[in-house]
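Please review the protein record below. Tell me whether the encoded fold seems credible here:
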Amino acid sequence: MSCMFRRIALQTGRCRSERNWPFPKYLGACGRVIFVENGGKLLDTSLASSWKDRANIALQLLNMIDTFRNGDPKWIVIFLDFRYENFAVDQSGRLNLIDFDEVMLIDREESGDGEKKQSCNMEDLKTFVSEIDKDHFCFQVPQYSQMMYALACVRLLSFLPEHLLKSLSDRHRSPEHVRPPGLLWGPPEHEATAIEALLRGCVEEKVAGGRLKAVEKLKAVLQRTLI
């Protein structure tokens, strides 16, 4: 497809040097093999960290998706494989995406504009993913890129019982797999109710635009707990 590059690995050096992209530092390449710095410890090792450390990582993850959606005037970055093993936290506490196999770069000039006019949820995402190889896929990308927030919330952030079961593309898991509680388990008591409601709003959108509002409010709450 003319609008899409399915692999981002060879772009990591340029992206990291030009902007504050969340990729390990590019060291060099030999043929089709690239070398990057160690991205740090896998994300699941942070599940036992303090609330402030986990809230900071969660905030970085949501900001990472902001960057993927709006960080470049020419490209939209689409990443749907939100699993603990695809992210790492370095010694300075910086979150990095370390597996680029499922990353897509979408040319903005070949895609549509604006957000979806109706609510957008997991069934809509399944339809969207099933049409990746069709001609109209790229035009739909801006409307569905918000689903990266939903996937991040349901797979990596949420500790709610309804979100712990196997989700959309956990294709590497056994059928009975139940993932560990997400990074936002054990929130401060005075913020717990708000965080639970916002995680639900992030995962399941009731009205168009509701997810983006929930994400912004969740970021504000997380930032507040870091003070």
About this structure: Residues 40 and 223 are 23 Å apart (CA to CA). The chain is about 35% helix and 15% strand.
